[in-house]
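Researcher: We're teaching a course module on how sequence relates to structure. For the next exercise, students receive a sequence and then see the predicted structure as tokens, so they can try to spot secondary structure elements on their own. Here is the exercise chain.
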Amino acid sequence: MHPNLYALGAILCWASLPAATGNGLDGLSVTELLVFSFVPAALYLVAQAMMLQRSWRIPVPSWRLSLLGIVGIFGYHWVYYLALDRAPVIEGAILATTWSFWIVVFSSVLERRRLPLPVAGFACLGMYGAYLVIAGGRGIHFEARHMVGYALALLCGFIWSGFSVALGRCRPEHDYMPIFTVYAAIIALCLYAGTGGASLPPARSVGAAVYLGLVPLGLSFTLWNRALSRGNMTVIGYLSYLTPPLAVLLAALVRGAPVSWHALAGMACVLAAAIGGRRCTGA
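Model: And here is the predicted structure for the students to work with:
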């Protein structure tokens, strides 16, 4: 299969993340959603790694790389679930995609030891896009009840961009995603045990959580790795910018969530900032 098709498959998996998260949170707490999504993800990725390597041994990284994986994989999804639990699904999902231009900013600063003026300008454009999403046409009168969710969604952008840039600079010898998800599943189970458990959750919500684990957290990484190993990085990088609009479309269809023109305009600014910044840095 063509590498771009693998990339598109991964993008479709990730695009379903907001809608599936919203469905899971309808009947599950954030801690329950973490457990019911990360345990299937860990089982899937570990089983797949064993079959591909034809070995029972799973590569385990150093403690520093392990800590990075915990922050990037568990930390990002924990904060993401919290964000969509406290903010509207559409707006929260768009704000989380600010990682796309922060990657450009962080990479530029680390590689060049400075922030070129054009990149700084595109970063400001991206933040203006985030402002449009949060303000929703109300000027500076934001809805206070959603502000914690908005802040968490923006924090998602910093976590994922920081994780992506740091992992790229580490250049790990192996694909450590299986063990990263195992770490995340163990932490989620510990948090769940600490809450004392709960009554049997709704089957629909559990199904959404298991879908999260098997598709956006599992299958997507398999497809993405195949795309990166066989395809053109530049083309695949630009294809990844289809994720936010597809995510908004799927969330609107599945959740019946309204999409304001301010949210769409904000998303356009965020994507323009990421693409423009990337062109400036020649990435």
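Model: If you want an answer key for the exercise: The chain has a mean pLDDT of 86. Residues 3-281 form one domain.
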